[in-house]
Amino acid sequence: MRIAIAGAGKVGKAIARELVQNGHEVLLIDRDPLEVRPESVPQARMLLADACEASALEAADLGSCQIMIAATGDDKVNLVVSLLAKTEYGVPRVVARVNHPKNEWMFDESWGVDVAVSTPRIVAALVEEAVSVGDLVRLFTFRTGNADLVEITLAVDSPVIGRRVDEVRLPVDTALVAILRQTRVITPSPDDSLEVGDELLFVSTTDQQAALQEIFRRR
Fold first, then answer.
1. What is the pLDDT confidence band of residue 173, given thresholds at 50, 70 and 90?
2. For the chain, does the N or the C end have fewer beta carbons within 10 angstroms?
3. For the chain, what are the domain ranges?
4. What is the Cα–Cα distance from 143 to 212, expressed in whole angstroms?
């Protein structure tokens, strides 16, 4: 995929390194000459420009990108970049970094944001995950569709242990998207059995998550 990243600071460069290692074509955009150094991420393209300006996004050929990541340290900039990417260039997927939790409510589809990433929320989710085997943990929210990516780790006394995926009836508007088992990532199939310690990743609407947790709750 072709991916543009607004913001070539530490966060933007870290994201770019991961993406190029996975075989994606990455363009980093930043207006600071000190940040736009090709040697910092040799496999990525660099563009010295202000991502809030339409001329810069035109030069970046943003319309050919499948994903735009607004990763600057300024929430106002991230919102403007997201809105331009979605409304002016029709980028299918827009991901935006939320720097200040108080601004999180603005990062939604009205500003062109498909996925808002808030570091405090992610850290909190990881802390919850570490101490809450058997409980539902929200990892992040998809603004479009009022859905969340949630995780449940199967406890030894979960009622679904040993059952096949197709034997577990999920609530409506809920999909099992992956099973993490030790070092493996498993794409669920109907015949896969569920084991103790499996981390199950679901996409689920908010109003169905209580019912989802009840299915897997330890007895």
1. very high
2. C
3. 2-117, 132-216
4. 20
DSSP three-state, residue 154: coil
CA–CA separation, 69 and 39 (whole Å): 21
Backbone phi, psi, residue 109, to 5°: -65, -25
Residue 91 — pLDDT band, cuts 50, 70, 90? very high
CA 29 to chain centre: 20
100: its two tokens: 């200040």
> In a 3-state reduction of DSSP, which class is residue 196?
coil
CB 120, CB 45: distance < 8 Å: no
Beta strands in 37-169 (DSSP E): 45-48, 67-70, 93-98, 115-118, 136-142, 147-153
Integer Cα distance of 162 and 175 in angstroms: 19
CA distance 81 to 94: 9
Cα angle 141-144-146, degrees, rounded to a multiple of 5: 60
Task: Assess contact for 168 and 215: CB atoms under 8 A.
Answer: yes
| Residue 57: pLDDT over 80 | yes
Residue among 109, 194, 107 nearest 159 (CA): 194
CATH code matching the domain that covers 132-216, chosen among 3.40.50.300, 3.30.70.1450, 3.30.70.20, 3.30.160.20 = 3.30.70.1450
Q: How many CB atoms lie within 10 A of CB 152?
A: 26
- CATH architecture, domain defined by 2-117: 3-Layer(aba) Sandwich (3.40)
